Amino acid sequence: MNDKKWGPCVPNSPSTMVAGKKRIRNTLLHVWRFPDERAKIQERMVDVGIRNLSVYVRKMALNGYVLHVDLAPIKDIVSLQKDYADLWRQLSELLERLLSRIRYNRLVRPLEMAPKRLSCIFR
Prior knowledge:
Blueprint: H1 3-6, E1 17-18, E2 21-22, H2 35-48, H3 53-63, H4 72-121
Antiparallel strand pairs: 1-2
């Protein structure tokens, strides 16, 4: 094998710097292909939702496949669950206020009304 193609990149060279940070992977791999193969690879990348060619090729080389899981239904379920949780919270707050008002009307209000009732009796 040719060390120039498989050897590590030169440290701090522009090819090892991404957005001002060092690359974690610093060894470059060259793959020869036909132009139509590039189009097929890009189609498969779109199918699995990967936009970066390096990521796609690395996953295929290491795993032999790329597993794409569609989580849209789960996101919908989670969204509904959050809505229901919010609804239950609002309902419990409303119920607590209602119970508080009932307790007030049963316990405190009769005590507030007692002097008026007593004044009517003792006239």
